Amino acid sequence: MLSTQDSRTGSGLVLGVLASGQFLMTLDSSVMNVSMATVAADLGTTITGIQTAITLYTLVMASLMITGGKVGTIMGRRRAFALGLIIYAAGSLTTALAPNLAVLLFGWSLLEGIGAALIMPAIVSLVAANFPQERRAGAYGLVAAAGAMAVAAGPLIGGAVTTFASWRYVFVGEVVIVLAILLVLRKVEDVPAAKIRLDFVGSALSIVGLAMVVYAVLRSGEWGWVQSKPGAPTVLGLSPVVWLLIGGLLVLYMFLRRTSRLAAVGGEPLIDPGLFQNQRLTGGLSIFFAQFLVQAGVFFTIPLFLSVVLELSALETGIRILPLSVALILAAAGIPKVLPHANPRRVIRLGLMLMIVGILILVGGMDPGADAGIVAIPMLLMGFGLGALSSQLGAITVSAVPDSQSGEVGGLQNTATNLGASLGTALIGSVLIATLSASFMAGIQNNPAVPSSVQEEASVQLASGVPFISDTQLQEALNNADIDQETADAIMAVNSDSRLEALRTALALAALLATAALFLTGRLPEEAVGASDEAPHRAEPTQPTKPR
Questions:
Q1: Residue 492 contacts by C-beta under 8 Å, 6 or more apart in sequence?
Q2: Residue 483 CA: distances (Å) to CA of 239, 464, 474
Q3: How far apart are CA 71 and CA 63, in angstroms?
Q4: What is the rounded CA–CA span in Å between residue 481 and residue 499?
Q5: What is the rounded distance in angstroms from the CA atom of residue 440 to the CA atom of residue 429?
Q6: Contact between residue 51 and residue 36 where contact means Cβ atoms under 8 Å apart
Q7: With contact defined as beta carbons under 8 Å apart, do 214 and 419 qualify?
């Protein structure tokens, strides 16, 4: 039981500290996505260079999460949180002052990625240490909401700061926030360090395996999943992506075998293999993965509709997505407060259903005459759905094990969310571009207003990938190519129809993935976290499994 002092510590200040940390970890990528062109011009590099920085940041963060969780167990959660913040602030300051791409890669992709890998698992443990069980669902909900808010608010913040000042001020602001967190960090109840050793071999295997898998997923859009795209590298006649996936999964299999062997002989594996036999934990992790898979796909698709199809600015795009953030906070904070004993499985199923309905309304509303207003209701439904999931999942996963293992759970949880987000963006993006290519080519070939010479030229251009471009960009390209107005109008019409078809298909896939996630909810508990009959469950440590 937590003492009275523990209850006082679990205050709004502590929650604000932990939620701020989660917000910072997620903000960078969403800000950078809308500021890429400005950052590239400022640093004298290309869009591809900035995309590489985004890729490497995700790669470093995702591959180090499990190890970061274990390091937090060894050195103490608050100390790991503080160390991660210091490394992260050093990376942010380096990024803010970066004169070129190389310094940006070091500051943002490497230092911030390492800092995030220490911070995010520690947040999971510190929530468990600072809030009694009956308040954990609400605390985890608000922390998760802070991360999702950063994804939604990133375009708004990035667009405003980049438009009216400089993208560098975003990273300066992060340093200021880190300093503020460090000043009040002593108010956060610590989780003492454990006298255990780090399994360096297991850590290396997990880092290499996860890095290979995540890198493959991140490069799939550029290189192709199995067959290499034109101009992409080839390994033994196939895309490097499929080989990286096979190699990464084999390394992860070796990692799991090692953890089982160490556990069987009384060693100290990086992760207790018994965790994977815990139905509640694996159920929660599965839904975490599915949530971020769908969430990333939607956040990839909707800004394309607003910024490319409707040609809204980054600031206007952020404003249109803002209702999602408001609804998300209301649901994440409100459900545990108003319905503290709600059935978690039922809440999560309702959340998924709201997400599905919101996506389908958006699919149905996308037509050539659509305006930005069609996203309002879907954004609210998506926000309430994501908030419902956020209000339950963190508490479910941590309540599945003793508090002493919350760091390991934090590492696994953040690995699942990073993998889900990476795969969601890659998968939805691949389907969107593939649909756009097929639809555009079919529309060109079947349109008598487009001469055969232009059709052949379009086929050559399509072979290297179809850019998802606005009407203004396409009109400018057609003018530069000296295409006559009748042909240009026909191509513009085909492009407009193809874009909408591609967006509808991508969103329909997101709805399908959310529907599939419903089948995973059977492993979730029906009793609210903190119910009296759960105490014996939490007292039992997970048992290591023996290798077979």
A1: 471, 474, 475, 478
A2: 36, 21, 11
A3: 14
A4: 21
A5: 16
A6: yes
A7: yes
Evaluate whether 105 touches 59 at the Cβ level (below 8 Å): no
The type of residue at 479 is N
Residue 406 region by backbone torsions, left for phi larger than 0, else alpha for psi between -120 and 50, else beta = alpha
pLDDT tens per residue, the chain (548 residues)? 344 444 444 468 888 889 888 888 888 777 776 677 788 888 988 777 887 888 888 889 889 999 998 998 898 889 999 999 999 999 999 999 999 999 999 999 899 999 999 999 999 889 888 888 778 878 888 888 888 778 767 777 877 887 788 889 989 999 999 999 999 898 888 877 778 888 999 999 999 999 999 899 888 878 888 998 888 899 999 999 999 999 999 999 999 999 999 999 988 898 889 888 899 999 999 999 999 999 888 888 888 888 788 888 777 877 888 888 889 888 988 898 888 889 999 999 999 999 999 999 999 888 777 788 889 999 999 999 999 998 899 889 988 888 778 888 888 998 999 888 888 888 888 888 888 878 877 777 666 666 665 555 555 455 445 567 777 877 777 777 677 777 777 888 888 888 889 899 999 999 999 999 999 999 999 988 766 444 434 434 444 444 43
> What residues contact residue 186 under an 8 Å CB cut-off, 6+ apart?
none
* pTM metric for this prediction: 0.84
Q: Measuring CA to CA, which residue among 140, 397, 152, 420 is closest to residue 291? A: 420
